[in-house]
Amino acid sequence: MNVFRRSITIRTFSDQYHQIIFSFIYVTELSYMNMVSTPNIFCLVKGAGEGRTLLNAFDQALLTAGVGDTNLVRMSSIVPPGAKQRKSITLPKGGLIPVAYAHIDSGKPGEVISAAIAVALPEDPDLAGVIMEYEAKAPLAEVEEIVRQMAQDAFEYRNRKLGALFSTGVEHTVESCAAVFAGAVLWYE
Amino acid sequence: MNVFRRSITIRTFSDQYHQIIFSFIYVTELSYMNMVSTPNIFCLVKGAGEGRTLLNAFDQALLTAGVGDTNLVRMSSIVPPGAKQRKSITLPKGGLIPVAYAHIDSGKPGEVISAAIAVALPEDPDLAGVIMEYEAKAPLAEVEEIVRQMAQDAFEYRNRKLGALFSTGVEHTVESCAAVFAGAVLWYE
Amino acid sequence: MNVFRRSITIRTFSDQYHQIIFSFIYVTELSYMNMVSTPNIFCLVKGAGEGRTLLNAFDQALLTAGVGDTNLVRMSSIVPPGAKQRKSITLPKGGLIPVAYAHIDSGKPGEVISAAIAVALPEDPDLAGVIMEYEAKAPLAEVEEIVRQMAQDAFEYRNRKLGALFSTGVEHTVESCAAVFAGAVLWYE
Q: Is residue A35 part of a domain?
């Protein structure tokens, strides 16, 4: 953002006793470039849902996860340098929320579906962290093990020292038509 | 957005006749957090297109829908509280436009493809509305019935009183290679 | 952005010798609508990667392409009017970056995978350009020829005079588990 300041001093009365100085300050927005700021917090969320359709099941899963009344914008999967983790997060209703997520659905009763994400954070706070997503028709333990390995791998081939690794996920046995969702929401504080 | 104002008064001449007061106002951007505002209008759009490839057919469908020269960013599907519906919408060329949409394509001549969206708005304007999308190789009547039910369901399991429900869609019989698109664009006014 | 300026002059001392004029300038943000600005530069990037999983392979491909530590937000595929091409681009780590891309992965050793994009720019700088993406289990020469035709087609049915057409892509023979990526990043300068 370019904020230009101009101070102009005009002497309007020059008699002996009066000095009037006006200070004008112009705040203009010449070539204002409004890119989206890089988020500075993140929060892990997860949920499972059933519905009459797969999309309704997904919508239910989002509601369970606490992000159901927002507009999730999916992105590839980086924790910005220095971003802080929050246990919970308040998002504007209908807001455009950047998120990385794992998601799977199924209309086959009895089937087990799981979604998990892992977050790898660097020792060096000036470097980016990595979010990995994995989902499968399998128990959560399996899915979560894989996604943790994925996050570790991402640090290994980046030659980046791992400071912390954590993961979360959700497993659900399909009743009629279900979806599971595990995500990392990025936002601002 | 944090705009900090500081007024500093400096008396530089203290002789009897001169008083010079400078007012400095600094507009700084300390910890300026530029998240995207929540949109406040929405507009339903739809279109069908044929093309040499499926992506060109989709591009044609977007042009028919009036959103062909923009950069659509797909999102999960909420109408922000209080957002107003517009019959038409002017979008910046190449702009980054949040949209929820249904979309299906086919390279099988004679096949019928349909895409529809439904919007459920709440009685209470402080609550969010829901956009649902559905698409199938089926007549529009079928597809639109399903998507309307999906939106109603979304309100039912939210325990949210329905104020209004509407839908739109498009059906197309494939000539050679075709796509249909029905979307809800969110934007600002 | 609405920046309101109000100048209020208050005479606080009215004795003969002193005149104090305060200029207050309020910068307020009434009905500030923070939509994302339309990007004004673009940069073509590409990469191939191998990994233990398909997502890690994709992550590696992004790193090779120089966009691996950012949050890519996928969009439909327009070059904003007047946007300038850059040979390279510096992106904020973890930043939310609009991108159009082609992408394909495979876990079948020996398979050839290719991803390519083509950019068509108009003669008239007030009109939008088009980005087309194509990917296949095929040599790059084939994939790139198709994607160039797609971009030309997009201009033909827009009745838009072509000023320039260029393309890039990447071909990779799968070792164990691989992904290729070719994209057009939009950003600001």
A: no
